[in-house]
Amino acid sequence: MATQMPQCPGDSHLAQILCDADLDYLGRPADFWPVSQTLFEELTARGLVADEAAWLELQVHFLGTHHYWTRTAIARREAAKQERLEEVKERLESLGNSTM
Q: Can you give the residue range of the structural domain that contains 35?
């Protein structure tokens, strides 16, 4: 239940670890874009995302509000996640649809 969105692990260290593991890919440069692309395709097929610009805007919001729960995840993944956020913003700007 802790990994349901929005994540809410409370004070349980085990639940915090599970939440961080669930979204670990956000801070893994090699995995972020392939996973992101798969999610985009799934949400597009389900009619939940209209186009790439809408997806990137959703990503900007998600990455901007997400936080890791454990010291380890913060130390190992946060900086790379922030780099991915900047890359997503750049892609969105390149589409000419930035609302930021």
A: 25-95
